[in-house]
Structures are given as structure tokens and as C-alpha cells.
Design brief:
23% strand, four-stranded mixed sheet, alpha/beta, 351 residues, elongated
């Protein structure tokens, strides 16, 4: 039997998983146990095909794979990679001692290449493991965590060569936080001409972290001013950038191959947004608009048009700076410390 370390993200926190692979006599089949969801159950076909297309001959044995602990439901395709490595180790292609100390996460394509994933930085920051082997597209994001060595790999075959010592890979370690200049396409506060009273009100709101409501006729500049608020917010420190990056990574909003989020978020949900869209949720809780605007601005345009139950959900996060989503078997807390900016017309007729 082979035991290999992996993990998946629960909210913005990491949950370690031990993957145990055992080969025994019996009808050729691959059995997955340990409360896997549908995407993990489909790994049976992805892993077998990826191994074949990578040039590895795997005998048609009975393979049992256990995801421990067995009482926690696992989700996502991040276990494809460690399952394939465990099968290769069980067949003696990779010596088992080469796996110690490494944590493997990644989704396999049918040709054996590794696909990028969501929530990688949440895993590398949350675990105490010091060495990760994961897709090259996620390497820069993963290496932002402190005291972590990240070995980026492109495919299953390259990973085997690395573990056997035939292809050394230089690890990425503790990439520094660089406060990037705002994008040239970002709206700038200096572009506003006139509107002295409104600009002064925004400066006071930003300086004191006060919520602000604009009331005025259409075309008065409410949305234009709101979009330029991030330009006068203070630059992010590294701890803020890491926390914002974790939230956006779990939500799948970070482009593959990029590192930290460099600009404060500005979120503008439509007034038809539901309470769950604002708070987050789902069978496996995901961050909502309030969490995605953490460290930045949540702009509610046409405020009176929002549903009452959606607006009521703002009470807790505005007071506590976080939001807790409870489900039958788990409870997830997301940060939600944002500057609330709202706008509305003085009359329901739109004038």
C-alpha cells in the first residue's frame, strides 16, 4: 500500500487529505472510497487515460483508493494527480521513499498534462507542508506563501522524471510582494472635474471608513465617482494582498499564471442579485459579492431596487467584517470588510 499527501480548499482554508492506494487480486477495476463527489469519481477515467497516453503501462489490477479522513466529503479534481502518482508508486515505477515530504495537487488532462486549479494559494498558506508539487500555471500563486517550496511541473511524465532524479526542477520559494502601479485603464480620481462637494464627501468616507449614499438624478455622476474610489484608497500591504488573493483564487477569478491581486477590488452586483449572491453559499460554500469586495468597495447602484432580504444580509458583515455560512456538516467563515457605497435616484420614476 502507498500513502500520498494531498489537500483541497474548504472556503479559504486548507484541508489535508491522505490518499491511500492499494493493489489486490480481483476483477480489474478502480474503486474510490472516502466520500468523493462526482468530479472525483470521474477521476477513474481521467487517470487511466492519462497514464496510458503518458506512456506508462499499468496492469489491469483491482485498485482501491481511499481518501482519508473518510467522514469528510471531498470535492474537486485536485486529486487526479496524486492518485496517478500513487498508482505508479504501487507498480514500482516510482520508489515510495521519493514521495515523502511532498504534497501533490493537480487536475489531469487526458494527455497527461496538468491543468491549473482554483484555491491553490489557500492550500499552500493553510498547510504546514513545506514542499508542493503542482501545475506550472499555479506555481507563482502558490509560492507566495511563506516557508514553502513549490515544484512546478507540466505533465505526469515530467513529474516522474523529477521524482526519479532524471530532471531536476528548481523550486520557487517565498516570492516577494511587489506593490504594482495601478493599471493605465483604471479610473482615476484626478479625472473628475467639478463635483467638489461629492469629492470631499468621498475623501471623508474613505479616510474614516464611513459608508456613503449618493442621491441624485440620472447622469449626475454617481456611478462615475464611485468607480474612482479605489484610486484614493491606501495601497495594500502584503497581508491584505494575500488575503484578497486567497478569496479570489477560491472563487476562480485569478488569471492562470498570475500572482497576487495588485488592485483593491470594486464589485458592482446588479440589483436583481439574490441574498446568496451577496453573501456566498452553495452546497460547497463559495464567496459572494461581499467577500469578493473585501479590502475594497462594494457598490450598490439603484439601492431601492434590491430585494429587502438581500439588503438585510449586509447587517452582520458591516458590523463584524466577516460572514459565516453554515451547512449541515461544515461551517465556513469568509472575510467581508468592505467600504459600502450606494446610489439611488430621488424618485422611483427615475428623475
Amino acid at each position: 500500500m502507498i500513502r500520498i499527501k494531498s489537500a483541497f480548499a474548504v472556503g479559504i482554508h486548507a484541508f489535508p487529505v491522505d490518499i491511500e492506494v492499494d493493489i489486490s487480486n480481483g476483477l480489474p477495476q478502480l474503486i474510490l472510497v472516502g466520500l468523493p463527489d462526482a468530479s472525483i469519481k470521474e477521476a477513474r477515467e481521467r487517470v487511466r487515460t492519462a497514464l496510458k497516453n503518458s506512456g506508462f503501462h499499468v496492469p489491469p489490477d483491482k485498485i482501491t483508493i481511499s481518501l482519508a479522513p473518510a467522514d469528510i466529503r471531498k470535492e474537486g479534481a485536485a486529486f487526479d494527480f496524486p492518485i496517478a502518482i500513487g498508482i505508479l508508486a504501487c507498480h514500482g515505477i516510482i520508489p515510495s521513499e521519493k514521495l515523502s515530504g511532498h504534497t501533490f495537487i493537480g487536475e489531469l488532462a487526458l494527455d497527461g498534462t496538468l491543468r491549473p486549479m482554483k484555491g491553490v494559494i489557500a492550500i499552500t498558506m493553510g498547510l504546514k507542508t513545506s514542499s508542493f508539487v503542482l501545475p506550472e500555471a499555479n506555481a507563482e500563486e502558490a509560492a507566495l506563501a511563506k516557508d514553502v517550496s513549490v515544484y512546478p511541473v507540466k505533465s505526469l511524465g515530467e513529474t516522474v522524471d523529477f521524482l526519479l532524479g532524471e530532471k531536476p526542477i528548481e523550486p520557487l520559494r517565498n516570492l516577494p510582494y511587489k506593490n504594482k502601479a495601478p493599471s493605465q485603464n483604471s479610473p482615476d480620481f484626478s479625472e473628475v472635474r467639478g463635483q467638489q462637494a461629492a469629492k470631499r464627501a468621498l475623501e471623508i468616507a474613505v479616510a474614516g471608513d464611513h459608508k456613503i449614499l449618493f442621491i441624485g438624478p440620472p447622469g449626475g455622476g454617481k456611478t462615475m465617482l464611485a468607480k474612482r474610489i479605489p484610486a484614493i484608497l491606501p495601497p495594500m500591504i502584503s497581508e491584505e494582498a494575500l488575503e484578497i488573493t486567497k478569496i479570489h483564487s477560491v472563487a476562480g477569478l485569478i488569471p492562470h499564471g498570475s500572482g497576487l491581486v495588485s488592485e483593491r477590488p470594486f464589485r458592482t452586483p446588479h440589483y436583481t442579485a439574490s441574498a446568496i449572491a451577496l453573501t456566498g453559499g452553495g452546497t460547497s460554500p463559495r464567496p459572494g459579492e461581499m467577500s469578493l469586495s473585501h479590502g475594497g468597495v462594494l457598490f450598490l447602484d439603484e439601492l431601492p431596487e434590491f430585494r429587502r432580504d438581500a439588503l438585510e444580509t449586509l447587517r452582520g458583515p458591516l458590523e463584524d467584517g466577516c460572514i459565516t455560512i453554515s451547512r449541515a456538516k461544515n461551517q465556513v467563515t469568509f472575510p467581508a470588510d468592505f467600504l459600502l457605497v450606494a446610489a439611488m435616484n430621488p424618485c422611483s420614476c427615475g428623475l
